[in-house]
Amino acid sequence: MDFMIGCIIQARLGSTRLPRKIMMDLDGEHSVLDYVVNQLKFCKHIDKIIIATTTLKQDNLLVKYSKNGGLDYFCGDENDVLDRFYQCARNFSFSIIVRVTSDCPLIDPTIVDDVINKFIKGNFDYATNKLPLRHSKCPHGTEVEVFSFKTLETTWLESKKISEREHVTPYIYDNPKKFSIFNLNSKKDFSHMRYTVDRPKDLELVQKIVKKIKTRPILTENIVKLFTAEPELLLINSEYIRNEGYFKSILDEE
Fold it and tell me: From the CB of residue 53, how many other CB atoms can be counted at a distance below 10 Å?
């Protein structure tokens, strides 16, 4: 293989809705971020995992976390996350970038590998499982995006809106005529399932999931089986809105 596939985990401690959420405990031993990293280590098509954090003093803890865990890291702009991704990918000479956020402790490595496979075999500029944003069928907490360095560079050069800089990829999926895009659709609609960690009740739900499911990695099929057996779990965080941060940034621009 003559190209490098790098997974860049977007991470910071300054979350406004649930500060320091990615360092919060899930099972008495491992944090949210631990789970993100450990789940991704089961991927077959990722060559390197990077923690991409900010240059803020508070995020020095994530640099220390990376060093202690034998992980590579990169420190970049707090708000211009697109620039952080671009500089990180360029620094590590990634040909293909896998984007995952640090609040998805149950990211499914089989889905990540599937999206990577579709991206490579179809020679796409961008592949994901999260489109369309308002009607995505995938569980909230399994979103993954894959794109070429060339696509990232074009996006970095041409993105002007604050929302495009903060959320990295909107310029890509908002320009389907410019980029070749693939979306991996779930056969079933799992949009009612949410196990990202953005608010206290999200954390409560994920803590219950990791306690009840003993296998590692924890796959979507395991969680579907659990929710089918115990549907009351879905009510714990059912009031929260999907992609809340992105849609808020869009409203702020209007």
Answer: 28
